[in-house]
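On clarity, I found the account of how folds are encoded harder to follow than it need be. For illustration, here is how one protein appears when written out as sequence plus structure tokens:

:::
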Amino acid sequence: MSHCTKLSSHWKIIVWDEEFFQGRRHEFTAECRNVMEFGFETVRSMKVESGAWVGYEHAAYQGQQFVLERGQYPRWDSWSGSNSYHIERLTSFRPIACANHRECRMSMFERENFLGRKGELSDDYPSLQAMGWCNNEVGSFRIHSGAWVCYQYPGYRGYQFIMECDHHGGEYKHWREWGSHAQTFQIQSIRRIQQ
């Protein structure tokens, strides 16, 4: 990812192989396909000093996704949040180059391939149903600008799906394009990713 190298001063994440910032430590300013290449079994705590990142359960950006914004993550439940799925592994991560909290715009569609009812978003929505979206599913997304994290349940809970304007050309035609862990059209809350 050449843009990550060029912007390396904008990205900094420090990871530890033990909880609460203990044990082996390594600093990254660009993507990491596999922490095992740096002597880690998994990341057990981290500090995001700059930029927004997406972490993955498995190597090579596979498995569950976790948005990692600036701050401290002393153990796995701090980045998985109120995720009802107990996942302690985080073995790859990369910067989210297009995160721009002030200028985010997306369209969501009732059915796959941008068909059916359409909704326009430019803000955070803890409940899509409360904003008038009739059901708990979204068929497809078109990301016009910025980066978003979509959640399976209201209140920013459940599986996380990171949607970026510079991935897939900003077009997510079907839930299978949301991530390797995606198994459902169910999306009930969405927010912009903080840079």
Notes: Helices lie at 2-6, 76-80. The chain has two domains: 12-95, 105-192. The chain has two helices and 14 strands.
